[in-house]
Amino acid sequence: MHGCADHLDALLRLIERHRAGRPRRLVFLGDAVDRGPDSARVLATLRALQAREPDAVTCLMGNHEALLLDAVAGRRRDLWIMNGGGAVLASFGVTDPAALPAEVVAWIAGLASLHGDVRRWYVHAGLKPGEPAPDSDLATRLWMREPFLSADHDFGRHVVHGHTPVLDGRPEVRAHRTNLDTGAVFGGPLTAGVFTAHQGPAVDFLQVG
User: Is CB count within 10 Å lower at the N or C end of the chain?
Assistant: First the structure.
């Protein structure tokens, strides 16, 4: 999402139309913040959704949330700013990470790094091939690219992830994983996968932008 609040609002409306009154569960794969124009509104939307439907909305941590937490704690501030953190500060109308709203920072700090259902693992970046899921460490879940992307490893469940933008606007679908990051903040669409209880890979994709 990376601060693309208008895209998020439009995608949520599209999801509501698509489900047509059927039950649904939402899993957000992290990187709500940085780079885009309105991280504050993206976070407000996610927090409100989760508060309203705690059993139906899961928000995961991405590496950009981890960078924000580091900056708030006085670590690696320059790295966060270099990776789009200045846009977050501007969206909240502050100039210092320590001035970000405490309740927002606490919500981010409480985010999980992995979610699982019967047929899938949901994670921001990836898992470590050769290690049984969900045993990968936090850094792997937030930052992994290789060898996860090229190994096409079977973790026992289909892995749904983001983190590595696919810049042709189409989600990357492999035998054992699906990458839903289609680079919304770089001009691509914001993408949701539609999954069922009957199979691991998506049965459809919804896109806006």
Answer: C
